[in-house]
Description:
Blueprint: H1 6-16, H2 25-39, H3 44-51, H4 59-68, H5 77-86, H6 96-141, E1 143-144, H7 150-155, E2 163-165, E3 168-174, E4 180-186, E5 192-194, E6 205-207, E7 213-217, H8 220-230, E8 234-236, H9 243-253, E9 258-262, H10 273-284, E10 288-290, H11 303-309
Parallel strand pairs: 7-8, 7-9, 9-10
Antiparallel strand pairs: 1-2, 2-3, 3-4, 4-5, 6-8
Amino acid sequence: MLHSTVELEQAILKALVYISPNSTRDEWVKVGMALKAALGDSGFQAFDGWSQNGETYNAKATKDTWRSISSSGGVGAGTLFFIAKDHGFRFESLPSNDRQKIENQLCRLKKESLKRKSQEDKERAQKHKEVAGSCESRWEHAEQAQAEHSYLIRKQVKPFNLKQQGGTLWVPLVDVDNRLWNIQRITPEGKKLFEKGGRITGLFSPIGTLSDVVYICEGYATGATIHQLKGYFVACAMTAGNLTAVARAFRDKYPKKRFIIVADNDRFTPGNPGLQKAKEAAKAVRGSYVCPSFNDEQQGTDFNDLAIAEGAL
């Protein structure tokens, strides 16, 4: 527990009562972040106990989410009270003698969190530079990818800008200034790995020549499919959560271009995160989005799956 007081911990537990664990995932994660900022690792008991009341509670997912949260992740303890207030909690309902103590504690926790975040940001930036340097050196000496690679054959796409080491494909991840920062490795079985400690946010793998229209999708196979069939320039953001960051990076550098976000249709996943993240990215840059539509007999979630199902590749 990070300098927490009994009054603060009790107030947090009271505020939690007003927040439903069945709310949106974003709000659920924010509650976890706020608890960790206020109580440190000892806050997991409160987070897990509260989450257990949710209809979709998953012990492993809860524990994994908690572990992924930094105590200086940008969300402070005060966020929990802010969320609780939207659901009916009133700070004035707490004992008057405790309120000032709690406010002082929240203020101190916020300052400590900002200080830790500043230090962590510096360390993260340094690590990103080190990984980028390693990637640049290795990329320069790697061989061009072979079209006969089993992953490419299975996906029926070509090796655009790819390299290869042994049986592993290398997908370059660059920023809008075309600097290489990271590499995604794809095994013959399709397992995908990034360089540990490397930057990902705002990076993409480019396919084709930049034009007036910029397509932004998730995975390499989807981007290669769009380029092969339509000839468009595509930026592969690699994950749904990175779509908005990539879209904003392009908009900031090329404000006059038109942006089309390509969604994965995660129809088998509650909430369809692929579609939702694509919508968010499109809204962020005033662009549009497209999403593959499957019939009941067709499997898959992305445009590569659809193109293969319909024999288009």
